[in-house]
């Protein structure tokens, strides 16, 4: 089994190093190879996703990804900015199914902005379509407006779109995930305004008929943004498009109060996957040794489960993370009085010891 | 001064009746005329926005709007559904500037999902562009896909777009609003992915240079959805496009825990405006006399301020609402132990008495 390790920018290298340490401690037959990505790759090779990095990723069974981005690249032309690496990988590998769990750990409930009774035991799985929608639709660009309110002036535009098979395959992913959990899917759309999401709603409804054991409901995206705040535990699996999923998955992860704990997976139809923490590159704390490596370590567990068929090893990592939390170890982002503050490396070491 | 009164569906008629009562009690020189809209208009005239209703709205100085929508119209063709009335009014009257305050009233802080210290004293103004973006962009529809992942299959599509003058005028509205408040504007975009919002960001930045007394920052929409949960009080004025504004303004109003209290205004460049509560038509409680009329009453106050130049009367209404809250009067949605539960009508009467 071959893993491409792409640490990236900011705290990426530090947190990925701890996940690699945990994987090594499991004594599996895994080959790991690293390559630069994002701003680091721009510095090293003039492009956020250099051909060698892309090739490594394409040939691997899975990608362990840190994070990309830094304010200092904000002035680069868009195709050279760090985030193009992640968009490029999604597109090149066809990683259409993004899994974003929003879990509130018992020990960390108090860290949420929400009242404890609203988030205690929270366990939502947001499934975001990742290769379609307005992220990749053509045409897009700038032009002179020919209609609208101000014809003759400069306008910018993008194309939102989904085809029937694209919606079908992500719907199947969602219903199958729900079958293994709470047996409930909420499909989020804006069918009252958008043609794209009227088709989305129609197709998800059709696919749902093949899963009579799963309850399906539909919610407009504005209402979903509200219900996540009002009563997050009403959700089990949420499935939505790329743009709405970007917004709602971030909102949901922030509800837990501990985004430093949340992993993610992005899979294609061959179960090849990219695994990364839900949080970003946090350049402000990079190099200080205080970042929380647990989201990345839990992403490695997802990788073992989804792409490498190593369920037992995945569970071992998850149990070890549970244990370090129960033992009161905390990085700065989740620290509270009465617990023990540890560094990035100490947290990684503690997980290895708990395996 | 002429006001078009459009009560609409669900609880619309009940709450609008109370706002009309308050306006009448002020003894201003106002002429009010009612017309059906939404599902009620579909029933009465076969269309959610009949020509007579549109004409009345166009000729009025302001529109007092209740709410539209009911599950029972979900199966109608899209052009006949209730929400087309509100989209049609926005478009026909050019109501491009939507003001959505998210205010947490001292007496109601406990009703928020968020911990009290995070929302006590919250006062955000979300300014949403309301006549552009993917809501109205052409072309849109269904077709056979010619490229993308599944060429040859059915796809649905929509067009996102903004022209430079559309962005300029809403940016001016936001900066001028900020000058009267906390002197801070946060512009929300997705410039890292969308051409439309790269132009948005560029133009807002340019316009911002004309307002050196206002601090401007830029935030990606996914991050904004998170920061609203994490630290809502960091915001003063938030300005964004139609689609992102739909999502974020609803998220922000739910943060306050008392969406039944929140008014909204939608203005054009002639200060003609549509005023409506931020909440919906709530068909489940329609006709029971328990809906909260305060958001609508406060919308009437915004109407007096923005469209009718009656600042003193607006303040009188707002002070009266403060007084009934301080007196402990509560409709069911904001009731808590130790306060006095009142009906829709009793709440309206109490505001009139407090004027
Ligand atoms: C960096 C950006 C392009 C990306 C996205 O919008 O998809 C990020 O926000 C994410 O959610 O992974
Ligand atoms: C009813 C719907 C078309 C509308 C919108 O999306 O604008 C509503 O959600 C709103 O925010 O006023």
TrEMBL record, chains A, B:
NAD(+) binds at residues 280-292. Transmembrane segments: none annotated. The keyword Cytoplasm applies. Its EC number is 1.1.1.85. Binds 1 Mg(2+) or Mn(2+) ion per subunit. InterPro entries: IsoCit/isopropylmalate_DH_CS, IsoPropMal-DH-like_dom, Isopropylmalate_DH. HAMAP family: LeuB_type1 (MF_01033). Homodimer. PANTHER family: 3-ISOPROPYLMALATE DEHYDROGENASE. This is 3-isopropylmalate dehydrogenase. It comes from Comamonas aquatica DA1877. The gene is leuB.
